[in-house]
Amino acid sequence: MSRQALLSPAPLHPIKPLRPADRAPAVASRAELEQLLADDVPYGDLTTDALGIGAAAGTMAFTARDTMVLALAEDAAAIIELTGCRVELHAASGAALEQGTPILTARGPASALMRSWKVAQTLIEIWSGVATDARAIVDAATAVAPHIAVACTRKNVPGTKRFAVAAVKAGGAVMHRLGLSETVLVFPEHRAFLGEDLLPDMIERLRRAAPEKRLVIEVTTIEAAIVAAAAGFDVIQAEKFAPAEIAGLVARMARMGSVQSRPVVAAAGGIHAGNVAAYALAGADVVVTSSPYLARPRDVQVRIAPI
Fold first, then answer.
1. Exposed e or buried b per residue across 148-174, where buried means at least 16 C-beta atoms within 10 angstroms of its C-beta
2. Which residues form the Quinolinate phosphoribosyl transferase N-terminal domain (predicted)?
3. Which residues contact 106 (CB under 8 A, 6 or more apart)?
């Protein structure tokens, strides 16, 4: 940010801020948010302290510089409040913002504004990028298949799952798997350790160990998918199938029974906003993607000024 942008008076916006009672709670706990601050300012703010400006009253305004789907705004506000500022949140996570839309305004001592500035800004920028990309995939898919589900994988940066889940939800998608502890998904890598075990035997073992869980299996060919469906798997995850192969699989499944009785068809691997419509048109019930986690951050303009 330029010196002029930093020192320009924070604009006063006519948008009515969200009342604290209307604001959704932060995703992360207070301890987690404090740790984010401690990571950036472990021993105090050397520059602000050396200049002797910490006690001066100031204001800080966050504004969308890009179009974006907002994410983690409540956590950003909570971080700023932890430093001793008063925050007015102008938009909630999940909102689609145009360039120039106010996000939040904070007032407090310069030491608190400077301490919370970059952590809160970066949190919104990174996860709004994820939410924006997720929304683009959801919009492209549901435009041609209104009831399709867009599910994001667990391939987020380790240690950021709370934020990843919140951003995915802000974008209108759902989580595919939160982790290995809550879902059953048999990969070819699992089967490599099972030797000649037959699929019905595998299903019996899984249902006995996890009787309340749906059983999912990843396959790489249509024939393997049909065999798994006939064995009794609840969800067939078709890995790196082309849209035409998904259409062929759905047609084969239709001959096995009704939509209600056949397994769910989940298309996975290499799916993004540019090709998801083809998979939706092909008849996939679910598309599984990691694409949002690679989205570019959305730019947030920050203006700080003395009062």
1. bbbbbbbebeeeeebbbbbbbbbbbbe
2. 45-126
3. 59, 60, 61, 77, 80, 85, 86, 87, 88, 113, 116
Let me know if 38 is exposed, middle or buried by CB neighbors in 10 A (0-12, 13-18, 19+).
Answer: exposed
With vertex at residue 230, the alpha carbon angle to CA 228 and CA 233, rounded to the nearest 5 degrees, is: 50
Question: Is 195 or 222 the better-scoring residue by pLDDT?
Answer: 222
CA-based Rg of the chain, rounded to a whole angstrom? 24
CATH of 3-131+295-306, one of 3.40.50.1970, 3.40.30.10, 3.90.470.20, 3.90.1170.20: 3.90.1170.20
Please name every residue paired with 286 in a beta bridge, in sequence order, or none if there are none.
149, 266
Per-domain boundaries in the chain: 3-131+295-306, 138-294
pTM of the model: 0.90
Determine the pLDDT at residue 21.
Answer: 58
Q: For residue 304, which phi and psi values (nearest 5 degrees)?
A: -120, 135
Torsion of CA 197, 187, 264, 200, to 10 degrees: 10
Reported confidence tier of residue 257, pLDDT bands at 50, 70, 90: low
CA 248, CA 153: separation in Å to the nearest integer? 25
Task: List, for residues 2-42, the tens digit of each pLDDT value.
Answer: 333 343 444 444 456 666 657 889 999 999 999 999 999 99
* Residue reference for tokens 């959305």: 298
Q: What CATH number does the domain located at 138-294 have?
A: 3.20.20.70
